[in-house]
Design brief:
The complex is a heterodimer.
Chain A lengths: L1 E6 L11 E6 L2 E6 L3 H9 L9 E4 L2 E4 L2 H14 L3 E5 L5 H14 L2 E4 L6 H10 L6 H7 L2 E5 L3 H4 L3 H5 L12 H25 L23 E6 L4 H4 L3 E4 L5 H11 L9 E2 L2 E2 H13 L2 E6 L1 H4 L5 H14 L4 E6 L6 H12 L5 E2 L6 E2 L6 H7 L4 E5 L3 H4 L2 H9 L2 E4 L5 H5 L2 E3 L10 E4 L5 E4 L12 H19 L1
Helix pairs in contact in A: 2-19, 3-14, 3-19, 4-13, 10-13, 15-17
Chain B lengths: L3 E3 L2 E3 L21 E3 L7 H9 L1 H5 L2 E2 L8 E2 L6 H10 L2 E9 L4 H9 L5 E6 L5 H8 L3 H15 L5 E3 L3 H5 L19 H15 L6 E3 L9 H10 L3
Parallel strand pairs in B: 3-6, 6-7, 8-9
Antiparallel strand pairs in B: 1-2, 4-5
Helix pairs in contact in B: 5-6, 5-8, 6-8
């Protein structure tokens, strides 16, 4: 039995680096420090996986040798006029670097999953810039945390504990004790009511919920958390202020905050369904903080307004910096989706949707992004790696994706691997293979190799290198 | 004129029958250029690349049989950076300013910058451990820590940017002169520079400290620059 410490967790953008694993006979048997998502991956990653390369013959996927699968994949890419190479967020930067070389070699389009998540955020950064920081700065200094249209309690479970409210920083105290006692209060009230019902044998109605929409008395000098969302999430329950807004009204609300912090009077009762008094109070909290931060999620990037929402959020951050210090950061989903933007940018100048069909990198989201290419039916082959486009793309795009030859490089059995023509199983990055990935705040961390991969599963890097050298051979002979 | 080169060194004579002859007529023969200060890699540089797609559109380099494709202009992509420096006659580039936390990123980019030799300097003028050690007068402990940082980040020299000012910027303020106290740390920019000078000497590093002074870019900052140079003298 060995205990491996300081393992990074290859699940979400929080990319925790304090995981401890107990390994016995090349199997992970126990996980410490990880959240439910992380623990589930470390303990069950090998449950549904392909061990052998597969190739489609007469409509059926049948087992084949690695050489044949690589050869077929290379032939598909070399023969194609306009292939797309998509995915990349759940693999290492080392693999992404080979992927870019492959895309350049075959003159294809390479795109990553930010095309369907924080792509609009990137467009906004190109429009209006960004003022950001590392998560350590937030942990140590921030006294006002906004989670706007994101739900870290469920999607980035350790974000609050490691970087914001429940962590002890150099200049900021943790607020977890307050949260626990509040939770204890709620539970004991429930228990009392139940006991009273049993004793008196009648139904005492639940005490009316404390109306937390106008917490005028809560003002304390401590870290504060504000949640803006369309529904009351677990994150919202832990917040000091929760603004439940009507769907697709984020843009309006952000603009109103921009006016309020400049002391503009608004002649309305409500904005986005929230009383103006509450908004005025939250605006005061923003101006009173020493260092505030907006964390925003897909609720902002993928609802009505898209990159216009982010433009406004960044502009609000900029306005606030006239009066105090404020920062803004997207809540990135996959553990290396930040890394894929970073690597694309240093090699090609562009963060996603890079088209190599003219021999040099070209970027025009809407034209060179995969969903648009697929919707127009322009590509004639596809490679999917470390992602699952068949499950997540719009139906029309998927139809065009599977109509043409499709290669899937993935450790798991996914809808994409089931629909592919060539399936090359890889080893699990960050469990069976080492590499580098970037946390949501652009901090690079090492992915560790904890157990040996099955002999039939190569790493993404090795698979891509083999395909690349095979493509080069094919192109040399055809020239 | 002929130049004889043996094992990478210019020598007086060489056996002309055995030597490989390079015809450089019409060209300039010069030692490889060393750019001692060029921001070519790392998180700051890459953010610049990200910010200006319109700058890349009008300056592209297509892939060839031996080179990778890329884009310019104000901040070229990594491959293009390497090729363009080579075309200009450079062989060695010094990339100042690498936040220690971003060392891995900087080196990944440098690895993708072909043809040239590279080195990079970790930013230490506002590193908390350095500030605390220097405040407490623990020069040797500070040197031990800096030595570890150099090894861990594969750094080449000590880089100091606006000493104390970056820490103050964490809460949106700044330091205005060499003798302002850094908020929360009870140390002045002068003490940071002096301290890291001593550390540099103790460690016998191959390069002096590299200082970007306080107030850089502000009108009248020559006063601070002169003061800073004086502060380095024992």
């Amino acid at each position: 039995m060995t205990i491996v410490t300081g393992v990074t967790c290859p699940v979400c953008g929080t990319f925790c680096d304090d995981i401890e694993l107990v390994v016995e006979n090349n199997v992970i048997v126990d996980v410490k420090n990880a959240c439910a998502m992380g623990a589930a991956k470390f303990l069950n990653y090998a449950t549904h996986r392909n061990l052998k390369p597969l190739i489609r013959k007469n409509g059926e996927l049948i087992e084949t040798s690695l050489n044949e699968a690589v050869g077929k994949a290379a032939k598909i890419l070399a023969d194609a006029n306009y292939p797309i190479l998509y995915g990349w967020s759940c693999t290492s930067c080392e693999a992404i670097r080979v992927g870019l070389e492959l895309a350049e070699e075959v003159g294809g389009v390479i795109d990553n999953t930010s095309t369907v998540c924080h792509g609009p955020s990137i467009l906004s950064v190109q429009d209006v810039g960004i003022v950001s920081c590392t998560l350590g700065q937030i942990r140590h200094r921030a006294d006002l945390i906004f989670y706007w249209a994101s739900n870290p309690w469920s999607a980035h479970p350790r974000h609050i504990e490691r970087y914001t409210m429940f962590t002890e920083g150099r200049f900021q105290k943790s607020t977890w004790k307050g949260y626990i006692s509040r939770l204890g209060g709620v539970l004991s009230r429930k228990r009392l009511r139940r006991a009273a019902n049993l004793v008196l044998r009648r139904d005492i109605p639940a005490t009316p919920k404390i109306e937390r929409h106008l917490p005028y008395t809560m003002f304390q000098k401590k870290r504060k958390m504000v949640v803006v969302d369309t529904r009351k999430t677990r994150t919202a329950e832990a917040a000091d202020y929760f603004l439940q807004i009507e769907p697709n009204k984020d843009y309006e609300l952000l603009q109103v905050f921009r006016m309020l912090i400049q002391n503009e009077e608004l002649n309305v009762d409500k904005v986005a369904g929230v009383p103006i008094e509450l908004l005025e109070e939250v605006a005061d909290v923003m101006l009173d903080c020493k260092l505030g931060v907006f964390f925003f999620g897909l609720g902002l990037t993928m609802s009505e307004g898209k990159h216009r929402n982010i433009d406004t959020a960044i502009s609000l951050t900029r306005d606030l910096n006239q009066r105090t210090k404020f920062l803004i950061m997207p809540m990135r989903g996959h553990y290396n989706v930040t890394g894929v933007n970073v690597v694309f940018t240093w090699q090609t100048g562009y963060p996603y949707a890079v088209d190599f069909s003219r021999g040099y990198p070209r970027y025009n989201p809407g034209e060179t992004s995969v969903i648009d290419i697929l919707s127009r039916g322009e590509s004639d082959a596809g490679l999917s790696i470390a992602s699952d486009p068949v499950a997540h793309f719009p139906r029309e795009a998927v139809q065009n994706l599977v109509k043409n030859p499709l290669i899937a490089i993935d450790p798991e059995v996914t809808p994409t691997t089931l629909m592919a023509d060539v399936v090359i199983p890889s080893s699990f990055m960050g469990i069976e293979t080492e590499g580098t990935a970037y946390r949501m705040d652009h901090v690079p961390l090492p992915l560790k190799k904890v157990v040996e991969p099955p002999k039939t599963c190569l790493s993404d890097v090795e698979i891509l290198q083999r395909i690349l050298s095979q493509v080069r051979k094919l192109r040399r002979t055809s020239n | 004129m002929d130049l004889a080169i043996n094992n990478g060194k210019i020598v007086e004579k060489i056996n002309e029958n055995k030597a490989k002859v390079i015809d450089a007529s019409g060209m300039i023969v010069m030692p490889g250029g060393v750019d001692i200060h060029c921001h070519i890699a790392g998180t700051d540089v890459n953010t610049g690349r990200l910010l200006r797609p319109e700058d890349h559109f009008r300056d592209v380099e297509a892939k060839t049989a031996v080179t990778r494709s890329g884009v310019g202009y104000s901040i070229p992509s990594t491959f293009t950076t390497g090729y363009r420096y080579s075309r200009m006659g450079y062989t060695t580039l010094m990339n100042p300013s690498m936040p220690p936390l971003e060392a891995r990123h900087t080196h990944e980019e440098l690895e993708d910058t072909p043809m040239v030799d590279k080195a990079t300097y970790p930013l230490l003028g506002d590193w908390w451990f350095v500030l605390e050690h220097l405040r407490d007068g623990l020069i040797e402990e500070c040197a031990a820590h800096v030595a570890w940082i150099m090894a861990a980040t594969r750094g080449y020299a000590i880089k100091i940017v606006n000493p104390g000012g970056l820490e103050a910027w964490g809460f949106g303020s700044n330091v205005k002169s060499l003798d302002d106290t850094v908020p929360h740390f009870n140390i002045t920019p002068r003490e940071i520079i002096r301290g890291l000078c001593k550390v540099n000497k103790l460690l016998n590093l191959p390069h002096t400290i590299h200082v970007h002074t306080n107030n850089l870019g502000k009108p009248g900052n020559y006063v601070t620059a002169i003061e800073t140079m004086k502060s380095g003298k024992p």
